[in-house]
Automatic annotation (TrEMBL):
The lineage of its organism: Bacteria, Bacillati, Actinomycetota, Actinomycetes, Micrococcales. Residues 239-419 form the Peptidase M1 membrane alanine aminopeptidase domain. This is Aminopeptidase N. InterPro entries: Aminopeptidase_N-like_N, Aminopeptidase_N-like_N_sf, M1_LTA4H, Peptidase_M1, Peptidase_M1_dom, Peptidase_M4/M1_CTD_sf. Its EC number is 3.4.11.2. It catalyses: Release of an N-terminal amino acid, Xaa-|-Yaa- from a peptide, amide or arylamide. Xaa is preferably Ala, but may be most amino acids including Pro (slow action). When a terminal hydrophobic residue is followed by a prolyl residue, the two may be released as an intact Xaa-Pro dipeptide. It is an enzyme of class 3 (hydrolase). Belongs to the peptidase M1 family.
Length: 445
């Protein structure tokens, strides 16, 4: 099988989302949100560059958000909205490579999108709001080029009623209050895919986790917890291991790729935890011992998914297989079940399931199939067991270093594995391909 090195094409997995004709390098989102009315008013400043001669720009934005004005440096531009697209006509054709800006003003009552992945995007909570972008929810709250391979930096200025706290990606760089409303400013200075952008709004109190400041090495990421006051003690207990997971992951996967990590716990129950760049969102139902494995899984996504992002959704196993294997590694390091035991359990579970899933192109409906997660974990376990551990972990660290804050494909992983395993007598592609390409279940590693 030929593994493609796909880059920044419109995705078959999220039809209509993502546009190859241009890139966005920065989003500045000024959002004013009323929790009581679920009314969102936004101004989005985008810095773009044409990748080919450009006469018009098509951005992804759901129609619930009505655009009132588009301009480029003060010059109003004609635009039209239809379905999930905002089409903006440029004054002149721009040659490929030209940088330009767009300012888009919009307002509306944001709604989640229902589709094969359940409910995604902007969602009201009982007393607040969250966004769940993966894989195609970003256009429910801001105009964007919604493709995982078009990464950009972000600034968020989010204004809400004063009793609520806002958490967005990156570091909070300030807040101001006026007339019963408060504006929260966040900077995400590392490149980020649109689906990982998030705003969390609730009656949250925020505390710092992890080692006290004087003990932190310079540049160590800040660990934060935001939760309703009544849930803070329980959440702290649930996250008691997090400092040790951080240390183990940095050892195995290389330095944590961002400046901070915030766990948000919602007052609402959530079906699954949500991943975002620098943030994990848990429901209040995820604080028990049964959910403990999820903490390692979600933290691992900061390396696998958020820093190194699949070039397209067909390679989602590069996120979920790795995060699942991180769970197993942590379980073993914490003195619980070993990776061998968890692998065998997973293999037995898979052996009773139908064999109709191909890991490297699962199809949009099966991107988040449980089988993809554990088969991906098993693929990595098979690779680890094929050679000494130090080779496997060297590969993981080269992977996170070589593609840090970028995009990568399965072909990239196989190529890097081939380089790392050179001299071991093992062909990593031959080990991995039955797991990645075949539908039948290979023998238990
Ligand atoms: Zn995951």
């Amino acid at each position: 099988m030929n593994f493609q090195r796909a880059q920044s094409a419109a995705s078959d997995y999220a039809p209509g989302h993502g546009h190859r004709e241009y890139t966005v390098s920065r989003y500045r989102l000024a959002l004013d949100y009323s929790v009581t009315a679920n009314l969102l008013t936004g101004t989005a400043d985008l810095e773009l560059a044409a990748r080919e001669p450009l006469r018009a720009v098509v951005l992804d934005l759901q129609a619930e958000l009505a655009v009132s004005q588009v301009e480029d440096g003060g010059l109003p531009l004609p635009f039209a909205q239809s379905g999930q697209h905002l089409r903006i006509t440029l004054p002149n054709q721009l040659p490929a490579g030209t940088a330009f800006t767009l300012t888009i003003r919009y307002t509306g009552f944001p709604q989640p999108l229902d589709g094969p992945w359940g409910s995604i995007g902007w969602e009201e909570l009982a007393d607040g709001a969250l966004t769940a972008g993966q894989p195609a929810g970003a256009p429910t709250w801001f105009p964007c080029n919604d493709h995982p391979a078009d990464k950009a930096t972000y600034r968020f200025e989010v204004t809400v009623e004063e009793e609520y706290r806002v958490i967005a990606n990156g570091l909070c760089s300030g807040q101001t209050a006026e007339a019963g409303r408060r504006t929260w400013i966040f900077e995400q200075s590392e490149p980020m895919a649109t689906y990982l952008a998030t705003v969390q709004i609730g009656r949250y109190e925020q505390v710092r986790l992890g080692a006290p400041k004087p003990e932190l090495p310079p540049g160590a990421p800040m660990q934060l917890l935001a939760a309703p006051a009544r849930l803070l003690p329980k959440a702290r207990t649930a996250l008691a291991e997090q400092d040790r997971i951080f240390a183990a992951f940095e050892d195995w996967f290389g330095p944590y790729p961002f400046g901070s990590y915030t766990v948000v716990v919602t007052e609402d129950k959530l079906e699954i935890p949500l991943e975002a760049q620098t943030i994990t969102v848990l429901g209040r139902n995820h604080l028990g011992r049964k959910s403990r494995r999820l903490l390692a899984h979600e933290l691992a996504h900061q390396w696998f998914g958020n820093s190194v992002t699949a070039a397209d959704w067909q390679d989602i196993w590069l996120h979920e297989g790795f995060a699942t294997y991180a769970e197993w590694l942590w379980s073993e390091a914490a003195g619980r079940q070993t990776a061998d035991e968890l692998g065998e359990e997973a293999w037995r579970w898979l052996s009773h399931k139908s064999e109709n899933l191909c890991l490297v192109s699962p199809g949009p409906e099966r991107m988040f199939d449980d089988r993809l997660y554990v088969r991906g974990g098993l693929a990595l376990h098979a690779l680890r067991r094929s050679a000494p551990d130090n080779v496997f972990f060297a590969l993981l660290r080269s992977w996170t270093a070589g593609f840090r804050h970028g995009n990568a494909s399965t072909a990239d992983f196989l190529e890097l594995a081939g380089q790392t395993y050179a001299g071991t007598g093992i062909d990593p592609a031959a080990v991995l391909e039955p797991w990645l390409v075949d539908k039948a279940l290979p023998p238990c590693p």
